[in-house]
Hints:
Layout: H1 3-30, H2 36-57, H3 66-90, H4 96-103, H5 106-118, H6 124-141, H7 157-182, H8 185-207, H9 218-245, H10 248-253, H11 257-270, H12 276-293
Helix pairs in contact: 1-4, 1-9, 1-11, 2-3, 2-8, 2-9, 3-7, 3-8, 4-7, 4-11, 5-7, 6-12
Amino acid sequence: MTPEGRARGLLEAALAVVVWGASFIATKIALRDISPFPLIWLRFGIGVMVLGIAVAVRREFRLPAPRDLVAFGLLGLLGITFHQWLQSTGLITAQASTTGWIIATIPVFIAILGRLFLGERLEGGRVLGIVLAGAGVLLVVTRGDLSMLFRGNLSTPGDILILISAANWAVFSILSRRGLKRHPASLMLFFVMASGWLLVNPLLFATSTFADFGHVTMRGWMAVLFLGVFCSGFAYIWWYDALQRLPASQAGALLYVEPLVAVVVAAALLGEEVTPLTLVGGAVILAGVWLVTRRQR
């Protein structure tokens, strides 16, 4: 790996992480004008076009076997249709900054699922990390008021949906491993995203009309375009290109920046309050994730 290649890989990974960190804020802005299913339909329709162009330019396109197409369809249902419904619906009531911290727990869920279904070991340090990350999530979603646990009022409904989406993405990530070993990442993502987008269509027509798009403001359209072109298109290309240039541990370390980006951008554009207890909870989450993902001796 040349220094130039490594620098390009770090830049692409950093761009992807910053874009994904800002995606929660863009989603909140778009949801002011449009409901979840039309937003998902627009966002991933644009994303499919961006990925399709990338696959064509790289001359990677080929039609997978029917069995693979079925697998991609199931992944699209799980990782696009269902996952984005969870996040978009959750962000109606959840704060964008809180969402960033909760999503950071995805590696913890991957470790737990790996232990339960793949027989992967969980050493003492990783178990401690899981406990810490869980404690950090409780601090974040209760805003430091842990008495909410005893009142049966854990958090907003949106926080619960975002937490479910983090676990769901962990399932999606584990199920995607086999396909990523056999297909170029951009090609697989194209078919997965296209499948998920197609499955959104009947839900869109059942719950909305195209007249709903006429209520979107200029700010809303800018948020939709950002989500489609950058969050669902370029960011995935940048991320998987970076993984080809960098060790996974180096690229993965940059994911710790994502919730920090969400906090800063949410405060600047949405006026969300950043409290010391939320930052403490976020720090505990990141410490737990680090313990779970660090290389064991």
